[in-house]
């Protein structure tokens, strides 16, 4: 990915990591220019609320497995607060 300047994600984004020490969304987030994915699947990620909201702007289907979303102060965002932010999401699993 070193040769890519910016990524525009469309339709589908799926991010898996083998362990929580390698958060690939966080490592590559500065390279993401825009995210129009309607399907987002995150597995084994620790991500900021701002990053999560950016990725979910167009999401209709959301899959989360072992995902932690944190506020700027490091506290964990509760799931019901996340769900309130995305009225377009039709399915969460």
Core attributes:
93 residues; alpha/beta; 4-stranded parallel β-sheet; 4 strands; 42% strand
Please provide a written account of the structure.
The protein is an alpha/beta fold and 93 residues long. It has one domain. It is 19% helix and 42% strand. The chain contains 3 helices and 4 strands, in the order E-H-E-H-E-H-E. The chain has a 4-stranded parallel beta sheet with strand order 1-2-3-4. The protein is globular.
Summarize the structure.
The protein has 3 helices and 4 strands; from the N terminus they run βαβαβαβ. By secondary structure, the protein is α/β, with parallel strands linked by helices.
Mean pLDDT: 84
Strand order of the largest sheet: 1-2-3-4
N→C terminal distance: 29 Å
The share of residues in helices is 10-25%
Poorly predicted ranges: none
The structural domain count equals: 1
SSE order? EHEHEHE
What's the Cα radius of gyration?
13 Å
Number of helices: 3
Shape: globular
Q: Beta-sheet strand percentage?
A: 35-45%
Structural class: alpha/beta
The profile of the biggest β sheet is: 4 strands, parallel
- The overall strand count is 4
